[in-house]
Amino acid sequence: MAVLLPNLKSIKINTEMSKAKDKKEDIIEEQVEATTVEETVEVEALSTEDKLTQELGQEKDKFLRLFAEFENYKKRTSKERVELFKTAGKDVMVSMLPVLDDFERALLHIEDDKEAEELRKGVVLIYQKLLTTLSQKGLSAMEVKKGDVFDSEVHQAITQVPAPSKDLKGKIIDVVEKGYTLGETVIRFPKVVIGQ
């Protein structure tokens, strides 16, 4: 019976080979770990860069919106300021309207009286001067004539009467009081009588 015993040399070689194999595997594992760590660092660096880029974009958007809002605010306040200057004397103008109405009524009555010609000339002169001064400040009379179509946005109806003809149904029959605008703002609507 012969027993084969492994040779010491071959055991030594096998042991050295397995050690070399283990070293290779360790080196490969270390390389794989190093590559994984590098990739993770790159991914984190990219994600940090992406985050910063995204934050920068959000801040730019906030800035642009805030800038646009401020520009709108400036435009609105300048427009309001101009409108305020145009209508600053609104209260004074509104209080002067009855005086204009009284002048017009006085002129109508003076025209009938032939003896008061000099008085009429003086009243007309004062009326014209007052009207010119107020128009320079932005006051203007609204043009409303008999026969115009009634518009509730522009006219104030005092009463409705039966229309003298079918043509005047829904139209202005008489103007009781003139309307006035100050700039583009209506400060008194014309008071009218409309036909039914």
H/I helix tally: 3
- CATH hierarchy: architecture of the largest domain: Roll
Distance between the termini: 142 Å
Please give the domain count: 2
Overall mean confidence score, pLDDT: 81
Largest sheet: 3 strands, antiparallel
| Secondary structural class | alpha+beta
Taken in chain order, the helices and strands follow as HHHEEEEEE
Unreliable runs, pLDDT <50, ≥5 residues?
A: none
CATH fold-level topology of the largest domain: Nucleotide Exchange Factor Grpe, Chain A, domain 2
Task: Output the radius of gyration.
Answer: 48 Å
Q: What is the topology, as strand order, of the major beta sheet?
A: 1-4-5
Shape: rod-shaped
Question: What's the gist of this structure?
Answer:
Helix content is 62%, strand content 14%. By secondary structure, it is α+β, with helices and mostly antiparallel strands. A three-stranded antiparallel β-sheet has the order 1-4-5. The protein has a three-stranded mixed β-sheet with strand order 2-6-3, with no helix packed on it.
Protein architecture, described:
The chain is α+β, with helices and mostly antiparallel strands. It has two domains: 24-86; 87-195, Nucleotide Exchange Factor Grpe, Chain A, domain 2 (Roll), CATH 2.30.22. Helix content is 62%, strand content 14%. It contains three helices and six strands, in the order H-H-H-E-E-E-E-E-E. Strand 4 (180-182) and strand 5 (185-188) form a beta hairpin. Helix 2 (90-112) packs antiparallel against helix 3 (117-136). The longest helix is centred in the first third of the chain and has 79 residues, at 8-86.
